[in-house]
């Protein structure tokens, strides 16, 4: 069994030395860089935009996974694609035409995905499976880092995994199943067992004390824990 992909969220990084931070997480074994975009409209916080994505792109080889917590969505898609994003996900409630937005992301050369808040039903997936490269389940309410994992995400993960497996059995394309919010070494095994193959970790990674091996130590601990070791 392959260990889950780990996608550290730079929302918890030291913004005064962001280039150094993303180089460090890649060297420590990160698989993706998770890039949280909040607009103080769709969610009650304001973070970073395409210029920051463009600034960190030369510092890492791994994919940049842009999570758009914005409304409207479409105007930002070409800007992030041009800035070096590899994956762009958005919340279906924030787009007037979800199918069109997914196609726009793909037309700009990025992988496309939907993000489901804790109370958002998975039914959005059913008519869009052939457009999806990623499904991201929020295991906290979006807007702020450092929140606790919502346990009801586990059965929702299982339901999403069943949909993806059925799609694959019909000959469909692979779809990553990502989880974001409150992922720690003590719950990642449950999360992966429920069906996730990609885990976003923010404060768990960037808050790792040097005494525990810093970023490399926590990355290895997360990957071992994901395997139930």
Mean pLDDT rating? 95
Helix content percent band: 25-40%
CATH fold-level name: TIM Barrel
Biggest sheet details: 8 strands, parallel
Radius of gyration: 16 Å
Give the strand order of the largest sheet, numbering strands 1, 2, ... along the chain. Answer: 1-8-7-6-5-4-3-2
Shape: globular
Q: Number of DSSP strands?
A: 8
Question: How many H/I helical runs?
Answer: 8
End-to-end gap: 12 Å
SSE succession? EHEHEHEHEEHEHEHH
CATH level-1 class: Alpha Beta
Low-confidence stretches: none
Supply the CATH architecture: Alpha-Beta Barrel
Domain module tally: 1
* Beta strand %: 15-25%
Give an overview of the whole structure.
By secondary structure, the protein is an alpha/beta fold. It has a single domain, classed as TIM Barrel (Alpha-Beta Barrel). The chain contains 8 helices and 8 strands; from the N terminus they run βαβαβαβαββαβαβαα. α4 links the parallel β4 and β5. The protein is globular, with a radius of gyration of 16 Å. The two termini are about 10 Å apart. The model has no long low-confidence stretch (mean pLDDT about 95).
């Amino acid at each position: 069994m392959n260990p889950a992909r780990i996608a550290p969220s730079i929302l918890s990084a030291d913004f005064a030395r962001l280039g150094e931070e993303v180089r460090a997480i890649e060297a420590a074994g990160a698989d993706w860089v998770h890039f949280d975009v909040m607009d103080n409209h769709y969610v009650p916080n304001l973070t970073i935009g395409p210029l920051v994505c463009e600034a960190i792109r030369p510092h890492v080889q791994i994919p940049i996974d842009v999570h758009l917590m914005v409304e409207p969505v479409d105007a930002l898609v070409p800007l992030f694609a041009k800035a070096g994003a590899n994956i762009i996900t958005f919340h279906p409630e924030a787009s007037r035409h979800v199918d069109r937005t997914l196609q726009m992301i793909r037309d700009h050369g990025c992988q496309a995905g939907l993000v489901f808040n804790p109370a958002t039903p998975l039914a959005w997936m059913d008519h869009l499976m052939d457009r999806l490269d990623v499904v991201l389940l929020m295991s906290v309410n979006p807007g702020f880092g450092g929140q606790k994992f919502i346990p009801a995400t586990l059965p929702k993960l299982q339901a999403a995994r069943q949909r993806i497996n059925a799609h694959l059995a019909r000959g469909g394309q692979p779809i990553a199943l990502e989880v974001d919010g409150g992922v720690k070494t003590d719950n990642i095994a449950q999360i992966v067992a429920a069906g996730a193959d990609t885990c976003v970790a923010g404060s768990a990674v960037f808050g790792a004390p040097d005494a525990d091996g810093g970023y490399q130590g926590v990355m290895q601990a997360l990957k071992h824990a994901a395997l139930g070791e």
